[in-house]
Amino acid sequence: MPGARAAPVSAELTAAERERILAKAALFTPPPATLPDGRRDLVGLSRAELEAEMAAIGEKPFRAKQLWHWIYHQGERDFARMTSIAGALRARLAERFVIGRPEVATEQTGRDGTRKWLLQWRDGQQVETVYIPDSDEDRGAVCISTQVGCTLSCRFCHTGTQRLVRNLGAAEIVGQFMAARDSYGEWPSPKDDVPRRLSTIVVMGMGEPLYNYEETAKALRIVMDGEGIGLSRRRITLSTSGVVPMMDRCGRELGVNLAVSLHAVTDDLRNEIVPLNRKYPIAALLDACRRYPGASNARRITFEYVMLRGVNDSEAEAHELVRLLRGIPAKVNLIPFNPWPGSPYRTSTYEQTARFAAIVNAAGYSSPIRRPRGRDILAACGQLKTESARGRPGAA
Ligand code: SAH
Ligand code: SF4
Prior knowledge:
This protein has helices spanning about 10-25, 45-55, 60-75, 85-95, 170-185, 215-225, 245-255, 265-275, 280-290, 315-325, 350-360, and strands spanning about 40, 95-100, 105-110, 115-120, 125-135, 140-145, 145-150, 165, 200-205, 235-240, 255-260, 300-305, 330-335. The chain is of the alpha/beta class and about 400 residues long. The protein folds into two domains: about 20-25 and about 100-375, Aldolase class I (TIM Barrel), CATH 3.20.20; about 45-100, Orthogonal Bundle (DNA polymerase, domain 1), CATH 1.10.150.530. A nine-stranded mixed β-sheet has the order 3-4-5-6-9-10-11-12-13, with helices on one face. α7 runs parallel beside α9 (about 280-290) and α10 packs parallel to α11. Iron/sulfur cluster (SF4) binds next to loops. S-adenosyl-L-homocysteine binds near residues 306 and 381.
């Protein structure tokens, strides 16, 4: 049929694909949350799991509620200071449990205030987490990683040159936000509309979150819980390179804002620069966006488009982008390509980026040009990479 679009991914196929993706994620599971001395880390447990831990030591469910408040609202790490709990029980908790944090291997602050932490886990693996302050106001975004490395190898991305070492666990994902909050001393967690420096989360660090869906979802549920960190789903944006079968689950179960790394308007080019496109081509990806729950003008899907000079930045491509997005409540983030050592591209000129933006804008889509942040400390989009290697924890 001339002009036919690729058939939408069928429901059965999607379910089978989802199973395959989840089974694969299980091969890269994080290490158990128990220390060599047998104490268990309470961070990263769901409320039900925390209640089960309390039941196992003969305590009622309300203890879990108290602990939740201490861990995620107060940011307390020492049982001895949990004054609403009787002394004897505090001691018993300290014998069996810990409230863990990643080890901060390095912390760097860039000239524009961007801060980057290299965080290390118990098995020696490392990831990077970044805080990007809003330049005009006292707030900002914590950019969180979900995997050590990435299985996908987008041509323009530094993380993509590092193999997937393993997935991060929920404790490690929520632990990145908690470590950032420690660094700024922003405990207890500010409530409701109280201004906060760490005001949003972008799941845009190392890795593909929808290839580590279960742990990412668990961590985000902890972050969204109103009795703890209490960041609403509207303050969280998850970025995917287009894992179509997992997008509907993400929308239905988490309802966070969605960002999609589009970067090209033809399958030929996208196959080359975002190789996942060979599995889930543009038409299937955009169909999944149309189905994404809650997508409306108030909650638009963000399309990320990295500006690569002479590769994807022509005016014709801007017009094609507008045509593709028709009918989707969308905004377009134009990201100047951030170079890294050995990277194969150059960033588009400012003039070309502005021409591209003007075309998208004229069609009614907001199309901000993202200002690169933290480039001097290699903390900008797509510059993150650690020395972690599979099978050689912490090896350089
Ligand atoms: N894996 C997810 C989330 C992490 S990447 C994803 O790909 O969406 C976050 C964003 O940074 C993505 O839009 C990604 O395409 C973009 N990015 C990667 N490398 C980049 C680079 N060198 N310069 C600018 N943006 C880059
Ligand atoms: Fe992985 Fe995203 Fe980088 Fe692609 S852009 S290699 S999906 S982290």
